[in-house]
Amino acid sequence: MSRPWDWTQWHAATVLEHVRSLRERFGTTVLVTSHYMEEVEELCERIAVLSHGRLVAIGTPNELKTRIGPHATLDDVFAALAGPAAQTEEPGAGYSGVRQVRRAARTHG
């Protein structure tokens, strides 16, 4: 081999192929969650961008890229639409915030 074998790349390719085959075989919607925009662009006809559990954009890959700029990538789309909000920790945001809210709900009903 000219380079080391990467199990994660093989696994990801296998999963992507399985998702494609399910979509083609059953002709149905498949919900995919990912931060890997290359995979998203390859697999998805429509994309929803979420930030802090809120829907901030929905559309085809081309619609979303056009919204950001003429040479935008899906990485640019994600950074522009979810990036600033994702980097700003609001009270109750993030894993620790969710954990605190759940703990308070159990304690106080």
Description of the molecule:
The protein is mostly helical and 109 residues long. It has one domain (31-108). Helices cover 58% and strands 10% of the residues. The longest helix is centred in the N-terminal third of the chain and has 20 residues, at 7-26.
Name the beta content range: 5-15%
Count of folded domains: 1
- Helical content stands at 55-70%
Number of helices: 6
Q: Uncertain segments of ≥5 residues (pLDDT<50)?
A: none
Q: What is the CA-based Rg, rounded?
A: 18 Å
Q: Main sheet?
A: 2 strands, antiparallel
Characterize the overall form: extended
Mean pLDDT: 78
User: Given the helix and strand composition, which structural class is it?
Assistant: mainly alpha
Order of helices and strands: HHEEHHHH
Order the strands across the largest sheet as they lie in space.
Answer: 1-2
User: Care to count the β-strands?
Assistant: 2
Taking the alpha carbons of the first and last residues, their distance comes to 59 Å
